[in-house]
Input
Amino acid sequence: MPGRILVIAVAAMALGACATETRFVVADDACTAYGFRAGTAEYANCQSREQAARRQGRVANTAYSSDQVMAQSQEACRSYGIVPPSAGFDQCVQREFAARRPL
Output
C-alpha cells in the first residue's frame, strides 16, 4: 500500500511539471488599438507621437469649428503613421476628436 501511494505521488508530481499556463496581456494603448504591432518601428513612431500630443495638450481653441477640430484630428492620426481609410484611422480620429473637443 505505501509503495502504491509513493508511485501515485511521483506520477502526480511528474504530470504536474507538464502543466502549462496561458496568460493574456491586454494592451490598453491607442497604437495597438489602431492596428500597430508592439515592437515594430511603426508602433514606436505612433507611441512617440501619441505621447508628444499628450504632453502638448490636444485641446483645440474654443473658437475652432468642429470641422477644424476634425481636420486637426485627422492630421494627428496621419502623423502617427495611420493610413486612411481604415478602421484604425477612424478609431484614431474619434479618439483625437474627443481629446481635442473643447468642453
